[in-house]
């Protein structure tokens, strides 16, 4: 079984700035493709025109190459369709990886992707599910990954049947309708019907263990003792940018793409060092700062955090990095750059400027591993992901305000709305999960109260202490 791409198998390739066109009559021609040769075949010039309701260029187009180096037609056409329909390039990248994985697995198992003959176990879709199930059972992948891979495969075949008129010899899967219940943004319960297939892995973990919060994935709030250890290690490692990035995450709950695409002009440089106010900053479409699902969000950032960012963007360290940036407008500069002047995360609006790079915070993940190793050295074992900082912020927020419910200053609905607002959620459903988590983990939650004061003291005083020591040595 070959579940990973390799140079001799099917593999995805990223093309950039691809022009879209169709062949047309010369009277409608907007351009001509010139004479060129493909091997011994000479292609004569022919007229082309733009495709209606389609962008002139696709910034990132993923295709799949077969083992012999030729283009895999069906998979690549489906990826083209997803791109022109407006799918996010990262989504298309995942689909391309999944489809290449599918074809490599079929090849290794002696299956053909268009041959749906015989019993279910022999058909390519069911064969792939059985192979994925083995990986889930031995812990190589999680159910969510398995379902994403199957969803990519189902999406391609649906496109092939609906648009490309593919007719399989036997059913590719069995569909059924399922009723699900959900809460709207105001907390009212609704139900709707969804179409599911028997290729989906049932989520045995859907009944929560209470150890995590479902918020765009399984997030594990970090206990206060471990939060302290986390900050102590940040100080010891003396990486200014990482200290500030973690500080913003722990005090705002922003996701990684928003923090790392934050802009110079968004920092309130008039903020006071000891300020307790919350300063609203709009991020999302039109702001050059990325958000999940490209939604506009109003993030509340503590005044003292703005002050810390102000000190940083006016420092020689920051100016040296920003001077190497490809961005010329000071206000549009990222707040966080690497030593080489590259953003830690390339915003969608800067994709072309940075050569359609796929950089999405790899340095943050690498530093996270360094932190985990350092924590182990100090006898404070802790495994975490950067996204867990969002859950940590949410739980700290709940605990710091639950006392207001106890003394009657606010009611539970107001607390739920507060959590929803600070986490920039459209629905109260996620906020209610944080309250449920606290109810299940009262001792843990009580230990987290007023963590922001602790964070502020450690980040500001300890970081400046190390800066003074370095200055005395220079």
Describe this structure in words.
This protein has 474 residues and is α+β, with helices and mostly antiparallel strands. It folds into three domains: 11-162, no CATH class; 175-207; 218-473, hpI Integrase, Chain A (Orthogonal Bundle), CATH 1.10.443. Helix content is 43%, strand content 14%. It is built from 15 helices and 13 strands. The chain has helices at 73-84, 89-108, 124-137, 143-162, 224-237, 240-252, 256-260, 303-313, 316-322, 362-377, 388-406, 412-422, 429-440, 442-446, 451-473; strands spanning 11-19, 22-23, 31-33, 36-38, 41-43, 46-49, 57-65, 175-183, 189-197, 213-214, 218-219, 278-283, 297-302. The strands form six sheets. Strands 2-6-3 form a three-stranded antiparallel β-sheet, with no helix packed on it. It has a two-stranded antiparallel ribbon with strand order 1-7. A two-stranded antiparallel sheet has the order 4-5. Helix 11 runs antiparallel to helix 12. The termini are far apart.
- How would you sum up the major sheet? 3 strands, antiparallel
* Main CATH class of the largest domain: Mainly Alpha
Measured as a percent range, the helix fraction is 40-55%
Global geometry: globular
């Amino acid at each position: 079984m070959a579940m990973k791409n390799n140079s001799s198998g099917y593999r995805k390739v990223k093309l950039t700035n691809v022009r879209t066109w169709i062949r047309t009559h010369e009277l409608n021609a907007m351009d001509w493709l010139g004479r060129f040769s493909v091997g011994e075949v000479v292609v004569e010039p022919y007229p082309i025109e733009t495709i209606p309701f389609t962008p002139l260029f696709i910034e990132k187009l993923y295709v799949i190459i077969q083992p012999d180096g030729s283009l895999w037609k069906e998979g690549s056409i489906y990826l083209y369709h997803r791109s022109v329909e407006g799918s996010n390039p990262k989504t298309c990248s995942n689909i391309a990886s999944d489809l290449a994985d599918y074809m490599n697995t079929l090849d290794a198992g002696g299956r053909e992707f268009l041959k749906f003959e015989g019993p279910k176990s022999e058909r390519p879709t069911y064969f792939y599910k059985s192979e994925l199930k083995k990986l889930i059972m031995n812990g190589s992948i999680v159910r969510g990954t398995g379902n994403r891979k199957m969803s990519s495969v189902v999406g391609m075949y649906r496109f092939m049947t609906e648009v490309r008129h593919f007719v399989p010899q036997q059913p590719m899967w069995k569909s059924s309708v399922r009723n699900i219940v959900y809460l709207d943004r105001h907390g009212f319960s609704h139900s709707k019907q969804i179409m599911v297939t028997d290729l989906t892995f049932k989520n045995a973990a859907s009944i929560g263990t209470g150890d995590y919060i479902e918020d765009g994935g399984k997030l594990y709030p970090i206990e206060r003792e471990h939060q302290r250890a986390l900050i102590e290690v940040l100080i010891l490692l003396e990486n200014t940018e990482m200290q500030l990035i973690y500080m913003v995450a722990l005090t705002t709950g922003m996701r990684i793409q928003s923090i790392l695409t934050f802009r110079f002009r968004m920092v309130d440089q008039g903020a006071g060092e000891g300020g307790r106010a919350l300063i609203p900053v709009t991020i999302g479409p039109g702001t050059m700062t990325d958000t999940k699902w490209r939604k506009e969000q109003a993030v509340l950032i503590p005044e003292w955090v703005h002050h810390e960012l102000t000190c940083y963007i006016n420092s020689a360290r920051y100016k040296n990095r920003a001077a190497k940036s490809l961005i010329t407008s000071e206000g549009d500069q990222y707040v966080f750059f690497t030593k080489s002047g590259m953003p830690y995360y390339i915003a969608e609006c800067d994709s072309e400027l940075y050569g359609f790079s796929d950089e999405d915070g790899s340095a943050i993940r690498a530093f996270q591993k360094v932190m985990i190793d350092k924590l182990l050295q100090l006898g404070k074992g802790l495994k975490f992901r950067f996204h867990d900082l969002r859950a940590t912020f949410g739980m700290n927020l709940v605990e710091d305000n639950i006392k207001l419910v106890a003394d009657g200053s606010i009611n539970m609905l107001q607390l739920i709305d507060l959590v929803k607002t600070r986490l920039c959620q459209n629905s109260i459903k996620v906020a209610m999960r944080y309250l449920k988590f606290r109810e299940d983990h009262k001792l843990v939650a009580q230990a987290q109260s007023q963590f922001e004061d602790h964070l502020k003291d450690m980040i500001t005083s300890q970081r400046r202490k190390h800066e003074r020591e370095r200055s005395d040595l220079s």
